[in-house]
Amino acid sequence: MPRRLKTAALAAILFALNLWIARELLTAQFIAHMGSIEGVYIGLSRYILKYWPDLGWFPLWYGGVPYQNTYPPLHHFLVAILSKALGLTPALGYHAFTAVSYALGPVTLFLLALKLSRSRVCAFAAALLYSVTSPSAWLIPAVRQDVGGIWHGRRLQALVQYGEGPHVLAMTLLPLALLALIVALEKRRPGWWLLAALALAAVALTNWIGAFAAGLGVAACLAATGLRWRDWLASAGVGLLAYVIACPWIPPSTVETMRRNEMLVGGAVAPPLAWWSSIALAVAVFLLVLWILRRLAAPRFLTFAVLFLIPIAWLTLAAGWTQVQLLPQAKRIHLEMEMGIALAAAFAGLLVLKRLGPRARVAIACAVGLFLAYSAIRYRNNGRQLESAIDIRQRIEYREAKWLERNVGGGRVLAAGSVGFFLNAFTDVAQFRGGFYPAVINPLFESFHYQIITGENAGAREGEVAVLLMRAMGVDAVTVSGPRSPAPFRDFRNPRKFEGLLPELWRDGDDVIYGVPRRSPSLAHVIRAADLPPRPPENGLDIEPVRHYVRALEDPSLPLAEMRWRSQHEAAIRAVLARDQIVSVQMSYHPGWHATVNGEARRVFGDHLGQLGVEARCEGQCTIELIYDGGAEMRIARILSWGALLGGIGWIALDGFARRRRLRLRADAR
User: Taking Cα atoms as reference points, which of 336, 303, 288, 31 lies closest to residue 174?
Assistant: First the structure.
């Protein structure tokens, strides 16, 4: 059989095996794990299908955020494209796409391992280990308990139970990116440099953790091939090109926002002394192992696998064994650790088998084959349980979402727990919070949300404080799940805090929707400059500046303002204004917003609650046009991205022209 046909056959076997494990996802609209974040991702794909190409501002979360902050977009775009092409719902498109990307993960690892080891048997073994074993369950007790034992698949559980679709796709793309870089370093042709940059950009545009692992993979590749500064500089150039291509979706402001917020959502990292000590020890171990492998003349493929595994395992096991986090959400990197273990085990096994006799090889191969076959069957049985479909119309999340769409469709709601996760999978109802906390550009949202949900230290005033904060942020309704609710998450510590304080709009058992009465349901309000919050609140209980602002919003002597969205990035505000009055908009401030009155530019600013204000300088009936264009940063990012792509294509064309010219000259010389 030809070599390429053998390779294709082995890749097909791996794909079929993994699709067999995840096959229920191919036809599932919704599955039983409503505590999953997959509702957020389905909602983002639904939004792309509905509003493309109007993806500058995203008004549905956190008072509005730049769209690029919602999440790295590639996964959601691919789901939207698949759904549009095949006429699928976003939910079915999501599950079908994630099933395929899950099944392709071992295939791409097989291709990388084949390139490194030049052994189909070794590469196939690595991919099989990755497919039907979960070393993280063997090594980390918390993972083993969560997944249900060593015979259950952690990668599958992460995909299905926790909704890690983008993370799984990033792990599928990661081996392809490393493979493209390795080939580019060998061939040193413009086309391969651009392809490697596009592949690395694709990983970064899919998932932040995957992008971090890709950086470690690049470093491991370079260290395994030798300390050649030429390769390091070339790889740095490829990485820079990858970022420039991707920067409209991950500009510096988004990176900084993620960095700032991730420290909160991901948990505290180790204290400086412990952090630096652990990192220094990890670097020392890395360099020592590299030196030992070089002294032993270890082959490149084994060196790469070990060097890729060391930093990932160090971060993962430090968090899993000692609870010391060296990075926010370090525990999630254990999925990449499984990839490194599979490669290292297969590559080391190849070297051991070469030293054994034929009978020993056959015996070991049979034992490993039986082990993997048994594990695959267990994985399939576990997958059948995990992937069970449900009728979403019977779920509280769907019923509340549809009620809110009909009755509070133009307002903003605080949707707690799983209701919030799935709200925008079904509707365009704007949320006080949202699905991806690192996206938030107004840091007060999290402290206010925490205070509303927990009522911490507010005592008997917890309901009053929560209502005041919600009014300040333009909330019209709040969903509450009591202790007997079927919702998997019940966020409110005291679900009865609003009884008798807010009107009950809807109830189903222990699930309630309360209205938050406001003088005007509009997000735009006419106030005086002196009515703005005089200072930033120090925390959710520092309510005096909030009370000062809400008092103005409820002042019947001030005129009302009407705000109407013309698109996802444009709004018109109409009001009768006095010359000394301003317009306060309960929307997160961003420098990408601009305002005009009768065609003349007006100053847009952020107040002490992080919300947007407009100096109208208009008297009588006034119309304010608000337009979001992302600001100078986004204009520069788009120019750089398109410039890099066109420059890369031009470089390829020039290289092709030069090669053809050299060939003609050689032919003429003959």
Answer: 336
Token readout for 448 is 């206010």
What is the percent of the chain where pLDDT is above 70? 99
Does this model's pTM top 0.85? My answer is yes
Helices within 189-330 (DSSP H only): 190-204, 208-225, 229-246, 252-265, 272-295, 300-322
Domain boundaries, the chain: 3-30+71-386, 392-515, 524-629, 631-670
Q: CA gyration radius for the chain?
A: 28
Q: What is the largest CA-CA distance in the chain?
A: 97
Q: Which CATH number fits domain 392-515: 3.90.1690, 3.40.50, 3.30.1480, 3.30.2310?
A: 3.40.50
| Sign, CA torsion 629/632/637/643 | positive
Please say whether the dihedral angle defined by the alpha carbons of residues 12, 13, 19 and 23, taken in this order, is positive or negative. Answer: positive
Would the pLDDT of 120 be above 80?
A: yes
Q: To 10 degrees, the CA torsion angle through 331, 333, 334, 339?
A: 180
Neighbours of 656 (CB within 10 A): 13
Q: Are 31 and 23 in contact (CB under 8 A)?
A: no
**Residue from 470, 636, 451 nearest 63 by CA:** 470
Question: pLDDT digits over 192-248, tens only?
Answer: 999 999 999 999 999 999 999 999 999 999 998 876 788 899 999 999 999 999 999
Q: What pLDDT sits at residue 670? A: 65
Say which DSSP state 511 is in: E
Q: Quick: pLDDT tens for 18-77.
A: 999 999 999 999 999 898 999 999 999 999 999 999 999 999 999 999 999 999 999 999
Report the distance separating Cα 278 and Cα 283, nearest Å: 9
User: Residue 452 to residues 400, 497, 548: CA-CA distances in angstroms?
Assistant: 20, 10, 18
71-74 contacts, C-beta under 8 A, 24 or more apart: 71/40, 71/41, 71/44, 71/166, 71/436, 71/439, 72/166, 72/204, 72/205, 72/206, 72/207, 72/208, 72/211, 72/249, 72/250, 73/44, 73/48, 73/205, 73/249, 74/166, 74/169, 74/202, 74/205, 74/206
CB 181 within 8 A of CB 196: yes
- Buried b / exposed e over 424-437, threshold 16 CB at 10 Å, is bbbbbbbbbbbbbb
Position 178: which residue type? L
Report CA-CA distances (Å) from 53 to 89, 424, 569: 19, 18, 11
Other Cβ atoms less than 10 A from the Cβ of 236: the count is 12
Pairing of strands 412-414, 430-431: parallel
Segment 3-25 mean pLDDT: 94
Q: Is residue 549 over pLDDT 90?
A: yes
* Residue 266 pLDDT > 90: no
With a CB cutoff of 8 Å and minimum separation 6, the contacts of 439 are: 61, 62, 65, 69, 70, 71, 257, 261
Distance, in Å, from the CA atom of 201 to the CA atom of 212, rounded to the nearest integer, reads 12
Cα→Cα distances 129→17, 175, 332, 338, 371, Å: 12, 15, 20, 9, 10
Distance CA 243, CA 641 (A): 9
101-115, 349-363, 599-613: the lowest-pLDDT one: 349-363
- Residue 363's SS3 state is helix
pLDDT confidence of residue 665:
74
264 pLDDT band (50/70/90 cuts)?
low
pLDDT score for 439: 83
Among 172, 202, 29, 158, smallest CA distance to 111 is for: 172
| Separation between Cα atoms, residue 152 and residue 466, nearest integer Å | 43
